[in-house]
Amino acid sequence: MLTDRGSKYAVTGAQAASREEVDAVLAELKTDRAYAKATHNTWAAVLPAGGLKADDGESGAGMVILRMMEREGLKDHVIIVTRWYGGKKLGGDRFRRVQDAVRAYLDHLNGKSA
């Protein structure tokens, strides 16, 4: 979990080869009350039919995730970055925290330690 000025970020991901599988991963994540009540659950997926993304109110965050996944060559996968708002606006730093979360996830997938 990352923190910045009271906001907390978590990252989750899973294999997903269709929009239905992405929706199932999101639904499963939101069975955890903490994630269901989060301020934002932004996500992106690279599927055989192309890239998908959703900002969930965190404008531009889905594209940040999608671009990182595409650069990494990650396919048939969804990555979700969850933010619990801490009371202070982060401005452009919110994108850096999204990048930090996605980088940590990708490093974990690739067996790199933080």
Q: Can you characterise this structure?
A:
This protein is α+β, with helices and mostly antiparallel strands. It has one domain (2-109): Impact, N-terminal domain (Ribosomal Protein S5, domain 2, 2-Layer Sandwich), CATH 3.30.230. Helix content is 39%, strand content 29%. The chain has helices at 19-29, 33-36, 61-72, 93-109, and strands at 2-4, 7-15, 40-47, 50-54, 77-84. It has a five-stranded antiparallel β-sheet with strand order 1-2-5-3-4, sandwiched between helices. Strand 1 (2-4) and strand 2 (7-15) form a beta hairpin. The mean pLDDT is 93.
Write the layout of secondary structure elements.
Blueprint: E1 2-4, E2 7-15, H1 19-29, H2 33-36, E3 40-47, E4 50-54, H3 61-72, E5 77-84, H4 93-109
Antiparallel strand pairs: 1-2, 2-5, 3-4, 3-5
Helix pairs in contact: 3-4
Describe the structure concisely:
With 114 residues, this protein is an alpha+beta fold. It is built from 4 helices and 5 strands; from the N terminus they run ββααββαβα. The protein has a single domain (2-109), classed as Ribosomal Protein S5, domain 2, CATH 3.30.230.30.
**What's the main sheet like?**
5 strands, antiparallel
CATH top-level class: Alpha Beta
Low-pLDDT windows of residues? none
* Beta strands, count: 5
Overall geometry: globular
Any descriptors?
single chain, 114 residues, alpha+beta, Ribosomal Protein S5, domain 2, 5-stranded antiparallel β-sheet, 4 helices, 5 strands
